[in-house]
Amino acid sequence: MTKFAVVKNKDKMKRNLILFMAFTAMLTILASCATPCGC
Fold it and tell me: What is the rounded distance in angstroms from the CA atom of residue 1 to the CA atom of residue 4?
């Protein structure tokens, strides 16, 4: 594995983490809105 491949892989992981965090945040907001005491 070249250095470039490792860097590219790290970048992919970072993007996946951001997507995952955004997804969980969206789910949390949706879940809080679904309950009567939400928004």
Answer: 8
Kindly report the pTM of this predicted structure.
0.59
Q: Which residue has the tokens 């945040």?
A: 25
The type of residue at 4 is: F
Q: Show the 3-state SS of 1-39.
A: CCHHHHHHHHHHHHHHHHHHHHHHHHHHHHHHHHCCCCC
Residue pLDDT, tens place only, 2-12: 787 888 889 99
Q: Integer distance in angstroms from the first to the last C-alpha of the chain? A: 49
